[in-house]
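User: Need the bound-state model for 6-phosphogluconic acid:
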Amino acid sequence: MYDIVHIPADELAVRAARWIADVIRATLAADGVCVIGLSGGSTPGPVYAKLGEAEDIDWKNVHVFLIDDRCVAPEDRESNQRIVRETLLVSANIPSENIVFPETGTPLPASANEYDAMLRELLKFRSADVVVLGMGSDGHIASLFPQDRAAIDEAERFAIHTTTERFAVHDRITVTIPVLRSATHKLILLSGDEKLAVFEEMQHSEDGAHRWPLKAVGDAVVMIGL
Ligand code: 6PG
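Assistant: Bound-state model below.
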């Protein structure tokens, strides 16, 4: 179910970027188009920066969306779209019409509803080709938090509003489990001993997706930087 790869911490960005670039190249060669979904947080920035420098990718046929974002201004240091803009999009020449980010500056719930509509349009004819996920030390993925049963069970919508009291930014916009589960390739990026311990706790736990939303996502490549 999980293809687990242990990687020296200082090689995680290069190795993960190479893996994503290979998937993008293969998908473009087969289908002429590739849709990628990117998480935020602290781990993936260097991965996206390296990915942007990958050669031989026809970026104009790549579409990118955010797995989740915090409801802050797009230039805020907590913003996930800021991370993608300041890394991948610095070097990768992805046309602006292919970039699907939520309008986190507009009020909820309208912004979550708009993002749902945007993703519905983007994913009308094909599922995401690759999604990049992290896992929080509490076990959350995207902005799907443990024990938020309604959010984790959401089966119709592509994007929803969730809240958390555990982190500085409480309001989030996140894709739902069906968007993640239907992706063709899934990459989980974990950095450090604490994340490894949480991942192992999940693997040994008999609790289901309400405690561990990742359990609802399905097969994945897991890269652990130590
Ligand atoms: C976010 C994320 C989130 C992230 C995990 C892991 O906005 O917080 O998209 O789901 O992937 O929290 O984050 P780290 O990379 O910081 O460990």
